[in-house]
Amino acid sequence: MEKEEYTNLSERKKRILISAVEDYIQQASPITSSAVQNKFEEKISTATLRNELNALEAMGFLRQIHTSGGRVPTSKGYRFYVNSMMGDIPLDKKALADIQTLFNNRTVYLGDIINEIASVVSKATNYPSVVMLHGFEKLVIKNIKIIPLLTGQALILIETNSGVINNTMDIKSTVVMQTFTDASNFLTQTFANQTIASMIKNMNEYKQSMKKELLEYKEIFDALLKAFTGLIEALENNSKIISSGELKLLENPEYTENPEKAKKILNVMHNSEEMSQALKHEVDEKSVRFKIGSEIPVEDLQECAIATTDYEVDGESIASVGIIGPQRMDYAKIASALKFVVGEFQNMKTLQNNVNTDEKNDND
After folding, report:
1. Rounded to an integer, what distance in angstroms lies between the CA atom of residue 116 and that of residue 103?
2. Which CATH number is 93-134+241-359 given?
3. How far apart are CA 232 and CA 173, in angstroms?
4. In the chain, pLDDT over 70 holds for what percent of residues?
5. pTM recorded for the entire structure
6. Residue 60 DSSP SS3
7. Model pLDDT, residue 1
8. What's the rounded Cα separation, in Å, for the pair 309 and 346?
9. Is the CATH number 3.40.190.10 carried by domain 4-85?
10. Are 197 and 139 in contact (CB under 8 A)?
11. 128-156 mean pLDDT
């Protein structure tokens, strides 16, 4: 919303609009002058309040659903409300305790971390969540292990600054166990403290300079490069989407009364291209961002609101975390929960890295 649109709102209109939106978020019932009057902190006559609500409707912040019925906020009204309250948003103690209990099972596997973020965010907000991994190639390598399996494959474990990436690659049965151990040590020495992208980009250059050492590890190198090049390409095509809590959408009256609306939203949640468009944002935007109604560039989501934030590792965004719900969603609760949950996961990785460092120092 442009700044000049705020200047037409008196302080009283602003307070009335905020009160009306908050009431609708909580009750999901049309806004009436009597309901606003009962909760409004300032003494104001019913006639004056009705005139103010009429003015807010004329300005596009509210709309009347029936000629003689109450009003509901428009996307413009919700946008004003979000912009008004997006300062430091406190998280109430009960919500804090509820979320904290969800952090019992902590994992070091990156794929599991992304799954857990989606699950915890959905449980904390009671809305469906989507996590899209997009900065995988920025992760910094700490250690590489290759473990042969009885299936004719080998398990790749790459420890990064955001947990362990696990993948598999095809191998020939003629490669002996010691070769995998030696290759693991060699790969760690060669690529430690480089990014995944750098490892893949420079692999051929390393292969040309390794000569004697490479002869023994050539098959392992080729299989490793093939496995991770394919994974990077898949991620660059936005195919890495994790969702959780889809059925929570049906707990909202907007969708229980119209399940076709819910079906359209659920279809979008599993469409990588459309979700990528919906979650896209400018680099310098706030830590928690909201898109409301027509601000969402995906038609089937334009009766919704989306809250997004980034999961960062060492200052780099590697995933977008999104919440999808009705425009009536509790924006303050969603914003505070998103900030807290994602912050906890980032702290978890910091603590894990510190523990690993301490253990290494103890062993030295």
Report:
1. 9
2. 3.30.450.40
3. 27
4. 77
5. 0.75
6. coil
7. 44
8. 13
9. no
10. no
11. 86
55/86 Cα distance (integer angstroms)? 25
137-236 CATH choice from 3.30.160.20, 2.160.20.10, 3.30.390.60, 3.30.360.10: 3.30.390.60
Higher pLDDT pick, 272 / 60: 60
Q: In sequence order, which ranges of 28-92 are alpha helices (DSSP H)?
A: 33-39, 46-58, 75-85
Amino acid at 261: K
pLDDT tier, 353 (very low <50, low <70, confident <90, very high otherwise): very low
**One-letter amino acid identity for 26?**
Q
Identify whether the C-beta of residue 35 lies closer than 8 Å to the C-beta of residue 23.
yes
Tell me how far apart the terminal alpha carbons of the chain are, to the nearest angstrom. Answer: 58
pLDDT tens digit string along 48-57? 888 999 999 9
Domain ranges of the chain: 4-85, 93-134+241-359, 137-236
> If you ran DSSP here, which 8-state letter would residue 327 be given?
T
CB neighbour list of residue 12: distance below 8 Å, 6 or more residues apart: 42, 44, 52
